[in-house]
Amino acid sequence: MKEFVFPGSFDPFTKGHEDIASRASKLCDKLHVLILNNANKQADFSVENRLDMAQMILNKYPNIEVSYYDGLMVDYLKNNNLNVVVRGLRSESDLRYELQMYATNGLMYDEYETIFIPSRGDYSYTSSSTVKEVALYGGDISSMVPIEIVDIVTKRFEK
Description:
about 160 residues, three-stranded parallel β-sheet, 6 helices, 5 strands, pantetheine-phosphate adenylyltransferase activity, EC 2.7.7.3
């Protein structure tokens, strides 16, 4: 069985994340959407909130499983006999960063591979950080996050 992992902090999950997950799920038998903590960022949503939101959005895809791991992604891969990671690319700067991560992870895990999926045009400029900033100032985020979580995200940033 071909299984891939789509990791991220997903703080919050965006339409771009859903697009990458749905497209990646067509390339494998099972896609693990793996929620991780990013040591460089302070999460605005708890792990439980991020798990719940991801599950609300992705439950319509039968071969996608959502889980959380507290540790290095390569350790999750090794512990679960997995080796293929899916990463979405919005821009050239994303590619540069992801190539660095690919090289770093490859040093820790010889079997490690990455599949890059380019973002569709509509989602090229959407990031979780942008969503949070727009929501913080009372802007409409419905074009950036799936309908299932618009109210949750909006309420989180109400002043």
